[in-house]
Model the fold of this input.
Amino acid sequence: MALTRSLSKQESEEHYSRHWFAALAKFHQVEKPASWNFDEKQVIAFLRSKLAKGTPTWKRLTIVEGLILYRDQVRKSSLPELEPIRAKLERVVDAMTNSKHTERGPLADRRNQSRAFWPSESSIVGKVFRWLTFYEVRKGSNGCESRDREWN
Done:
């Protein structure tokens, strides 16, 4: 039986920074990502594609923070300057959650607050499914009244 260990926070951050860099390189169809120097415009284009797919702001903020970690720890560079993008996304997240930045948790607190602010996808799908089921039973597939059922 193989034993697995959980990643430390630093290992986890590095793992996700590499993941987001790989996703950025794949988005821009880069053949040799190891030698590719990305810039702010490419990151913004990637984030806009994520926005178009419905990715929430807190997750786009996580992407930028991962790319900053990749830039700092793996590439050991100060370019591209992604801090203005991170600051803008932080302001948007703060405005959406109506909370101020706390000292103890950099992103985790905001992520938890934003999840509480927005209902989960499964709860929305469940509500839509119940509504559609109720509507179908009430109206019937032919538009006529169907037999009544007890609904909670």
